[in-house]
UniProtKB/TrEMBL annotation:
This is Uncharacterized protein.
């Protein structure tokens, strides 16, 4: 049970990392548009 819980936590953290990177990319794109 503990191992599967750890797996779920790892998957969640990976998912959050990807989500955060997408959000950062979107914000960077906005900044680039304003600068240009």
């Amino acid at each position: 049970a503990l191992e599967s819980l750890k797996l779920i936590k790892d998957m969640r953290s990976d998912f959050n990392k990807e989500k955060d990177s997408h959000i950062i990319d979107a914000e960077d794109a906005e900044v680039v548009r304003e600068v240009q």
